[in-house]
């Protein structure tokens, strides 16, 4: 019959102590989400964000300033709306053509660089082909960029046009155009700050002051020309 060993002779190596992870899974996901947000590269948004905000701001400031300038010497609402509409069409076409030419130039440069890299690349031909296809997908699209710029300009330009369309009183119409344009500038600046994770107050103030300066200069110079007796 086997003899019983004393308790102090029992090897502790044979005892397994289970360890449970009590960390809250929800907290882990929350922390992981915060880390992902902190590690996100917001510079990837820079290209399309710049094009969209630039187009919208240009449309808003250009057409608002143009309407304010016409309103400085003409009280007729039709004159303001006609000038604003002409500015919308001309500006949208200008933005589209300029963006198309600019992006197409960038496309040609990157395409030529890809061809040079393909010639100088050593290794598996199949892998090189896959890399070329992947790089081609990342190339900028001039047509899409042109359409986006034109649409953004149009959206910004419609703001002062719609604001002045139904106001007959001259001074009130000028005030409404300036107020609505200022409000839209703050919105555009805030959207850009949120999407780009930049200081909101600084962004809004920069956009707003720039719009005010453009409208004030256009209104002042046109008013000055009108009071000097030059035919408009």
TrEMBL record:
UniProt xrefs under Pfam families: VIT1
GO molecular function, one term: manganese ion transmembrane transporter activity
Region (Disordered) location: 115-141
Keyword terms of this UniProt record: Ion transport, Iron, Iron transport, Membrane, Transmembrane, Transmembrane helix, Transport, Vacuole
Bilayer topology annotation: Multi-pass membrane protein
Family: Belongs to the CCC1 family.
Name used for this protein in its record: Vacuolar iron transporter
UniProt source species: Ziziphus jujuba (Chinese jujube)
Lineage: Eukaryota, Viridiplantae, Streptophyta, Embryophyta, Tracheophyta
Gene: LOC107412006
